[in-house]
Amino acid sequence: MTEDMASEDIRVLLVDDQELFRAGVRVIVDAQEGMHVVGVAGDGHEAVRAVDELAPDVVLMDLRMPDLDGVEATRRILAPEAVAARARPVRVVVLTTFDLDDRAAAAIRHGASGFLLKDTTPVQLRDAIRTVHAGNAVLAPRDLATLLDSRAPAREPVPAAFGELTDKEREVFAAVARGLSNAEIAGQAYLSESTVKTHVGAVLRKLGLRDRVQVVVFAHQHGLA
């Protein structure tokens, strides 16, 4: 755990049990304009504490760590009660050496905004941090759907809250679940982008979801994709 710097930068927390890997990623992140590392953690327990102490915007979370792994740490960090207690949102990107990893799928269901392979390039890492900070996924919607479908638990009943969506909000929900941007939805539904943004906000609020990634997860969990 470490220091604070330019408050307007994207604040990044690195979580990995390998010190050499952490050091390498830290150099890459700190070299990017508009972001910096506020601290590091070597296991899941440290990660949970560091999120509360350092208030990062983005957490790069290793999945395979002793004691408390990245899946459980992600669940604790993004649990509804933990999210509600924070003054600012935090996004989690999981790091894995395996493509379409079972643990990555579990972490995404717990609220992670996607995953990166550990051999990703510095440019891809930089872009991923910016992408999740903006509330989007670092996995293409089609790939995210494949990941969730191929490792999906039994589908759950559709919550009553879904019935509270208006017809237009359901249309927007379906479009977001397919991975469409606000601009694409606006063109498809003959709406302004500001109106689409309002509908997306209503969908997230009524369903208790944090971001567009969770809309995709919700749709697949409940057979609404």
From TrEMBL:
Keyword vocabulary terms for this entry: DNA-binding, Phosphoprotein, Transcription, Transcription regulation
Superkingdom, natural source: Bacteria
SUPFAM superfamilies per record: CheY-like
Family matches, as Pfam families: GerE, Response_reg
Domain Response regulatory: 11-133
Biological processes per GO annotation: phosphorelay signal transduction system; regulation of DNA-templated transcription
CDD domains for the chain: LuxR_C_like, REC_NarL-like
Coiled coil: none
Ranges where the HTH luxR-type domain occurs: 158-223
MF GO annotations: DNA binding
Name used for this protein in its record: Two component transcriptional regulator, LuxR family
Species annotation: Klenkia soli
